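Risk register update: the risk of archive-format incompatibility is retired. Evidence:
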Amino acid sequence: MSSMKVNGAPVVDRNGKLVGMIVKADIYRFLITPGHIEKCPVEWVMSKDVITVSVDEEVLTVARRLRKNNIIAVPVLEGDIVRGVISIEDILDFYIK
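Archived output:
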């Protein structure tokens, strides 16, 4: 994640359906707890209650949802399938252009 400059990523099953979200902070919190191992399933660390947006939502609505929930990015869904991730930086770039 660090080398790709990505803070978080959606976790999907084999059918592309969202099952969670993992961010660097989740990993750091997990690893600082004594007794945790370096290798573990993503499922142990990921957030399972994920805030999402739909592909047809307005950018301003998405920005408000990010702010309301104090998060920096959300998966974008079309039905149950993840189509992308939108971040605060994406929204800033949209309005700057």
